[in-house]
Amino acid sequence: MDGSPTFPPAPPPRRRSQLLRHHQIRALVLTFLAYSAFHASRKPPSIVKSVLGPDPPKSTSSSSAAGWPPFDGNRGPHRLGEVDLAFLSSYSAGMYISGHAADRVDLRRFLAYGMFGSCIATAAFGFAYWLDVHRLWFFIVIQIAGGLVQSIGWPCVVAVVTNWFGDSSSRGLIMGIWNSNTSVGNIFGSVLASCVLNFGWGWSFMVPAVFIGLAGVLVLAFLVAHPRDLALENMDHGVEMNPAAESAVIGDGLVESMNGENSLVSEEIGLLQSGLTEGKHYSGTEGEEEPIGFFEAWRLPGVASYACCLFFAKLVAYTFLYWLPFYIRHTAVAGKHLTHQTSGILSTIFDIGGVLGGVSAGFISDCLGARAITSVIFLILSVPSLILYRTCGSISMFFNAGLMFLSGYFVNGPYSLITTAVSADLGTQGLVKGSSRALATITAIIDGTGSIGAALGPLLTGYISTWGWNIVFPMLIFSNLLAVMCLAHIAKSELIRKKKQELSSTGIVAESRYQMDAPIVFL
Prior knowledge:
The model is unreliable at 60-64 and 235-287 (pLDDT under 50). This protein has a two-stranded antiparallel ribbon with strand order 1-2. It is 69% helix and 1% strand. It has helices at 13-42, 44-52, 76-102, 107-130, 136-150, 153-165, 171-178, 180-195, 203-222, 267-277, 294-299, 303-330, 340-346, 348-368, 371-392, 397-427, 439-464, 469-517; strands at residues 247-249, 255-257. It is globular and about 75 Å long. By secondary structure, the chain is mainly α. A hairpin with a 5-residue loop joins strand 1 (247-249) and strand 2 (255-257).
């Protein structure tokens, strides 16, 4: 034995076509279920915050309570923010490690083990209710462990989906629809945790823990991570990572067309490409590609810019993820404070808006052929929506729900687009020679950097909210404006490229008309 990987024999062409479609659907459904379960198991801390922390002043709720030590009292919101920081900082650090590992291990097993670990960590937090635990260090340790195992999910599911749908011309739309798994998981987790909250806050953790455990069993039993595992890699339908006619996104916002058209790659990019590919060997269908190095992935064009943008965009998105039910509970709507359960369920409207925002952003970016421009538009429009939600959301339940939906639409749109379609674009660009094993690393870099912002946002909110929510919202608005600045140069380059394409097409049409109108001279 030479140690080279072996693959099953290829089935007949017609059977291969049927198998391809079947396993594409299966991969889409199972990865959707898997990451929905991951997000559902992250929601309980935000739902139970209003129970663990001190009750709002002048509350008229019959469910008023002093809170759960050590989260009660004036320092309660600070400690809740510290627990969020423990989870999200370990999640961010784990993302880099998990993405690097996912390029080198069995994706199916790695994903399933992450789901089982998340099941245990989520249940352990809930057991604190029955064991009457009041030590802050216990909750922090559990959240650190939970963040590490949760970080396994995203690099794995993105790599699997891109393995099966990597060459689709509608990648943005497909990824936008598929990435609604985050919002669907948030909604499902919020409803589950809120419905059982009255039985004791521990149940709000136990039910989502069982859900992600069962989902992990399905992933382990039925997921196929790559077409080559079934000898389907070279189908004419195209599950290749980077077809010849596909354009590769590069850092200055221009596009390098693989068939030679509109080639605008600078000398710097050419030198970078030669440096990245020097000494590396990709054996095509005969074996597996070599995974890309961590620092080499950072040097790829566009990776750093989108990673920094996601840092600020995810700071805003995760502040809402972890603090929105608490904010609703502590902010009177039409002069009345809502109950814990009503606040948790009402917060799902933000995620419903996020579902439509993610799908819309993917569809618009496909139509425009410009991911950065689409992201910038959504980020800019999120600013007035956040201002309106803070200033007018307390007028009535109708205003609160409508403006919350609008905020979720614009806040989650670019976050969804960057973590899916953009990550897939950057992970399959020409500079990595179509290596599917670069995908998880690049995805982890982008989402891991975003997760640092996700850790910072809830922590700052825990401290700043004690001074008033009128300080929290300007922080969120400022973060979105910084996200716009990170993508400004790429969006500008996309505009220049589109103008050049329009001028080029106009010139071709004018030349053809001139040739048609020219008189025919007979000699």
